[in-house]
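Support request from a user on the community tier.

User writes: "When I paste my structure tokens into the form, the page sometimes reloads and wipes my input. The last time it worked, I copied everything first. Here is what I submitted, just in case something in the input itself triggers the reload:"
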């Protein structure tokens, strides 16, 4: 049920007030999924968004970045197969690549996403939300402010934003973040990238494919420091093979921009030097987008992640009305895992607050307690966040992993053994590409006889990941995996070779 009234604010001005059962802050992919699930049992749902409906993934992250990376991957795949390779001439057409990217972002027009909200019965209010108290917010917009009241729950799904380190001159040099890198209209002749995480390495590949000279500065001693070391090494070798000037142990100490471009003073193993480029991309990390939400009005720290339990309920807010999901919690940093959490939180909110959710003879408090107790044994629990988070990096080679790395497993006190196999030795890989190069590794829990982590590198390595995710999430005994017969000749035959190598 929705209510709309006119009230007066503290200055006597009229303030439009709307009341919904559930209010979702953020209409990205995560917020959309949470809103959809929360409303499936009849609750009225309002989504508040100050930018484009569809969020970061649709317009500045997942979709445009992969659209930029895919043409180079296809070209490399064709060149690896004699008979096709002879027909491949020249390099990518940057204008065509960017035009196809524009199609994937709907030319930064969210009309289609708004239509989906309408079709799902989800209301949209455009503006910037700020808490004024428990279950109460003010949404500021150009055409006036609106007071918003949530009867039952507020779900924070505002995502994250890039951080720009305090290097002297960097902010004044108008650096790119991931948004500018994925929305570029013209490819620069040269680009320097700060940071060796997912955004840094993917954009290094994309811009090399598009013809830019790329320098990648990494403060540490490897790229992708959350991946297995062998995967980091293979990606680094792949970047250098593409012509990326990759420098480890190197950071910028000063940045200046003039009419010729950007000039960075850098310090590294060889001492101090300079790097010059048309543009500089900052890819050094992200932070939760909570600084301007007015979290102090509900007892939380602005700018910090919203800590949640496995039902995605905020742990530091009383009465069980505040939830958070996606990047803003610090639990997850991918769209697919955020959407998983969104399905969980939407189901939790629908189950707790929809009419008829309480059992006969139970009051609201008892019903909520029963639901929370049941959460440990039902789908209303974000358990995959702890054991089976999948990650894909669309570099060349691709890297895909799920679960714990070998070191993480040992740090958790598990008695594990890592088993590797060269994917190129599998018949299906030799059919897929001449000179196929890649590695498969599984981390075996010796005491329980299950796989707790897996990593794959190589062309289209991401396609191997779902089987591993099922094995890790389902804790499938490895003696049962013997009976999961891989088709021949496919790259998936590497699963059989891993079991053989493990002596199982």
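"...and here is what came back when it finally went through:"
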């Amino acid at each position: 049920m929705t209510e709309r009234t006119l009230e007066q604010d503290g200055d006597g001005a009229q303030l439009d007030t709307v009341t919904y059962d559930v209010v979702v802050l953020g209409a990205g992919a995560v917020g959309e999924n949470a809103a959809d699930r929360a409303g499936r049992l009849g609750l009225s749902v309002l989504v508040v968004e100050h930018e484009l409906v569809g969020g970061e993934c649709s317009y500045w992250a997942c979709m445009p970045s992969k659209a930029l990376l895919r043409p180079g991957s296809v070209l490399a795949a064709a060149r690896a197969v004699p008979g096709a390779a002879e027909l491949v001439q020249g390099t990518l057409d940057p204008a065509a690549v960017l035009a196809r990217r524009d199609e994937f972002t709907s030319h930064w027009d969210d009309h289609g996403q708004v239509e989906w909200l309408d079709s799902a019965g989800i209301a949209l209010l455009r503006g910037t939300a700020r808490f004024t108290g428990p279950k109460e917010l003010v949404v500021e917009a150009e055409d006036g402010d609106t007071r918003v009241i949530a009867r039952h729950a507020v779900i924070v799904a505002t995502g994250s934003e890039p951080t720009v380190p305090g290097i002297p001159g960097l902010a004044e040099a108008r650096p790119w973040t991931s948004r500018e890198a994925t929305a570029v209209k013209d490819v620069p002749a040269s680009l320097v990238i700060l940071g060796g995480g997912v955004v840094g390495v993917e954009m290094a590949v994309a811009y090399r494919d598009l013809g830019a000279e790329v320098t990648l500065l990494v403060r540490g001693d490897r790229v992708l420091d959350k991946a297995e070391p062998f995967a980091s090494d293979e990606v680094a070798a792949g970047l250098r093979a593409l012509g990326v000037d990759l420098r480890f142990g190197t950071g910028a100490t000063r940045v200046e921009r003039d009419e010729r471009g950007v000039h960075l003073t850098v310090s590294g193993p060889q001492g101090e030097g300079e790097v010059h480029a048309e543009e500089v991309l900052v890819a050094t990390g992200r932070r939760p987008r909570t600084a301007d939400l007015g979290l102090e009005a509900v007892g939380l720290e602005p700018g910090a992640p919203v800590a949640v339990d496995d039902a995605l309920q905020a742990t530091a807010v009383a009465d069980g009305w505040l939830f958070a999901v996606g990047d803003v919690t610090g639990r997850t940093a991918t769209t697919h895992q955020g959407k998983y959490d969104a399905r969980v939180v939407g189901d939790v909110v629908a189950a707790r607050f929809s009419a008829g959710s309480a059992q006969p003879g139970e009051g609201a408090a008892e019903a909520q307690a029963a639901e929370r107790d049941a959460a440990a044994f039902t789908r209303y629990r974000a358990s995959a966040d702890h054991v089976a988070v999948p990650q894909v990096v669309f570099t060349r080679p691709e890297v895909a992993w799920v679960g714990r790395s070998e070191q993480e497993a040992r740090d958790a006190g598990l008695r594990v053994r890592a088993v590797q196999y060269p994917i190129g030795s599998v018949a299906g890989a030799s059919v897929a590409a001449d000179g196929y190069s890649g590695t498969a590794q599984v981390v075996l829990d010796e005491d329980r006889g299950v796989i707790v982590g897996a990593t794959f590198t190589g062309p289209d390595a991401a396609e191997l990941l779902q089987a591993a995710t099922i094995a890790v999430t389902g804790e499938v005994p490895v003696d049962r995996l013997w009976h999961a017969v891989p088709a021949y000749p496919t790259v998936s035959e590497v699963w059989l070779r891993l079991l053989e190598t493990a002596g199982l």
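Agent notes: The reload is a front-end session timeout and is unrelated to the input. Residues 60-104 form one domain. Residues 358-362, 373-377 have pLDDT under 50 and may be disordered. Escalated to web team.
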